[in-house]
Amino acid sequence: MKQVVPIFEADIVAGKLKMLDHVKVAIGRWCMTFKTGSHVDILIRKHRSKRTDKQNRYYWGVVVAILADHFGYDAEEMHGELKILFNPIQSKIDPSRIIGGSTAKMSTVEFDVYEDSYVERICRWGATEHGVFIPPPEKAEKEDA
Questions:
Q1: Does any domain span residue 38?
Q2: 33: exposed, middle or buried (C-beta count within 10 Å: 0-12, 13-18, 19+)?
Q3: Which one of 18, 79, 93, 132 counts the least CB within 10 Å of its CB?
Q4: Number of domains in the chain
């Protein structure tokens, strides 16, 4: 079984790595799980907040579900169509072809926080182009059948 690798967060302040004391302690504990003399990798990258479970449930359970029902698609087909329409990228295999880009790589902000986010653009399109009302997250409740 693969070992889970923790992610430790820190900040860059005046060009230096700054972290809270409890993070330093956690890193020390993690290092103690390796044998003396182990060669390790250290990766530093800009932090990105992944979309939340709540955002994901709203997207799949409300936005995609309502549009899939309206257009007669299953959820995966609808998601594929939405990616092509609202997150198009050029195919690396066939540059003349446009495909849907990954939404999994979007931050919480890109996905569903600001006025022109992926989800907001989809909801606006559903309403203005197709007359499909998609309730906002705080007004959406899934019925038990």
A1: no
A2: exposed
A3: 93
A4: 1
